[in-house]
Amino acid sequence: MIYTIGHTELYEQSFEGKKLTSEPLMKLGKTDNYNGQPYEGGCCFRTVEDAQAYIKRHGYDRYSVYGILADWDKDTEYVEGREYNSLLINAQLVRISENE
Do residues 92 and 69 touch, judged by C-beta distance below 8 A? Predict the structure, then answer.
């Protein structure tokens, strides 16, 4: 598992809405056409601690850490100048416990 950050209220609403369907909530990976534009993929962190540190550094007090069912080495890539990697594939998002 790898990790991402998301606006807590919006992500939690999305998780609650998905409980009504059998479809998993997904994090978007790299694509050439997202609303007509290229998209480098969602932000990814190797560890919970890396994601939490990013939230703290940037003052994102309304954000939380979520899990992504993907592999750091195979499913992400480094983009020069970023503090995180980009997700290359669409991958399932999951809630994580605060103790993880």
Answer: yes
Stated pTM of the model: 0.88
- Could you report the per-residue pLDDT of 73-89, keeping only the tens digit for each? 999 999 899 999 999 99
Under 8 Å between Cβ of 38 and 31: yes
Q: Which two tokens stand for residue 85?
A: 């990697």
Total number of residues shown for the chain: 100
Percent of the chain at pLDDT exceeding 90: 75
Q: Which residue has the tokens 């598992």?
A: 1
CA atoms of 58 and 50, how far apart (whole Å): 12
Please write down the HEC assignment for all residues of the chain. Answer: CEEEEEEHHHHHHHHHHHCCCCCCCEECCCEEEECCEEECCCEEECCHHHHHHHHHHHCCCCEEEEEECCCHHHHEEECCCCCCEEECCCEEEECCCCCC
